[in-house]
Amino acid sequence: MNSSPATVEPLVKEQAPFLFLVLFFLVQATVLTVFTVPFSWSLVWVAVASYFLRMFGITAAYHRYFSHASFKTSRLFQFVLAWIGAMAMQKGPLWWAAHHRNHHKYSDTEKDIHSPTRKGFWYSHMFWFLRDDYNDYEAKLIPDFYKYPELRFLDRFHWIAPLSYAVLLYLIGGWAWLVYGYAVSTFFLGHATWTINSLSHVYGSVRYDSRDTSKNNLWLALLTMGEGWHNNHHYYCSSVNQGFYWYEVDISYYILKTLSLFGIVWDLKKPPKKVLEEGLLRDREQKERKLSLQESKQKSKLKNKVGVLST
Ligand SMILES: [Zn+2]
Ligand SMILES: [Zn+2]
């Protein structure tokens, strides 16, 4: 299913330019500055807090709000969400959401810009966005948010948010906070986010027939505040919650639900009853299939044993 109001044919190529690759790896290498600071648990908590704050910016803001419009909010809080998302250093909200809408439109086809089954693990994980011809995006993919000048500004100068965040961390806690709260945290935040393009299209279980390779994966859901329920999401992408049942942990949704109690966000879109019932039915069928497979395996084992004893 696709929520994009218009589509633009994506251009899919396989190579990332050399210079971009070098720059990217230099930025990645800043994680090694961790060796310049003596270890302390309080610094680890700074890194973890910074990770989850900005993961929320990616999952709740860039993904669920800007890409799929799965809830509504005020213009001011919309900008706050965009800013927190931009702090994750994954480019601007319009760029991110426009490309993501194409991912849903063309999942796992030749036109999918980051399909691990088509282009391999590393390309889908991180090399696709290093391509200079993906620096831009088509405004008509995202007219619902492109119309706001403040979002266009933040999207164009997206580096302002992470830079000011890094400066703030430095002012609060000096070099140690900059290293743990920014360099270390951003490294893990980036790779965790990208697992949704790479690993969650490879490892996990399939509940719905979403006509692509998306999977549900608890570990990735824990790591990404709920994004690991990717098969659910590909099947019904306009839902604000990606964990469809109470036992599918979805921290971003819990936070959004709490914000809705204070009137900060509203109109949270939920999956229809039909989709939920279909999911339960599929789970039941899968369980039964598994049980009957186990039974037939045990029976054939028993048969073999009896055969060996009687000879
Ligand atoms: Zn996907
Ligand atoms: Zn999506």
TrEMBL record:
<feature type="region of interest" description="Disordered">
    <location>
        <begin position="289"/>
        <end position="311"/>
    </location>
</feature>
<keyword id="KW-0443">Lipid metabolism</keyword>
<feature type="transmembrane region" description="Helical">
    <location>
        <begin position="251"/>
        <end position="268"/>
    </location>
</feature>
<feature type="transmembrane region" description="Helical">
    <location>
        <begin position="157"/>
        <end position="180"/>
    </location>
</feature>
<keyword id="KW-0275">Fatty acid biosynthesis</keyword>
<keyword id="KW-0472">Membrane</keyword>
<feature type="compositionally biased region" description="Basic and acidic residues">
    <location>
        <begin position="289"/>
        <end position="298"/>
    </location>
</feature>
<dbReference type="Pfam" id="PF00487">
    <property type="entry name" value="FA_desaturase"/>
</dbReference>
<feature type="transmembrane region" description="Helical">
    <location>
        <begin position="43"/>
        <end position="62"/>
    </location>
</feature>
<keyword id="KW-0560">Oxidoreductase</keyword>
<keyword id="KW-0444">Lipid biosynthesis</keyword>
<dbReference type="InterPro" id="IPR015876">
    <property type="entry name" value="Acyl-CoA_DS"/>
</dbReference>
<dbReference type="InterPro" id="IPR005804">
    <property type="entry name" value="FA_desaturase_dom"/>
</dbReference>
<keyword id="KW-0276">Fatty acid metabolism</keyword>
<keyword id="KW-0812">Transmembrane</keyword>
<dbReference type="GO" id="GO:0016717">
    <property type="term" value="F:oxidoreductase activity, acting on paired donors, with oxidation of a pair of donors resulting in the reduction of molecular oxygen to two molecules of water"/>
</dbReference>
<dbReference type="GO" id="GO:0006633">
    <property type="term" value="P:fatty acid biosynthetic process"/>
</dbReference>
<comment type="similarity">
    <text>Belongs to the fatty acid desaturase type 2 family.</text>
</comment>
<dbReference type="GO" id="GO:0016020">
    <property type="term" value="C:membrane"/>
</dbReference>
<feature type="domain" description="Fatty acid desaturase">
    <location>
        <begin position="40"/>
        <end position="243"/>
    </location>
</feature>
<keyword id="KW-1133">Transmembrane helix</keyword>
<feature type="transmembrane region" description="Helical">
    <location>
        <begin position="18"/>
        <end position="37"/>
    </location>
</feature>
<keyword id="KW-0408">Iron</keyword>
<protein>
    <submittedName>
        <fullName>Acyl-CoA desaturase</fullName>
    </submittedName>
</protein>
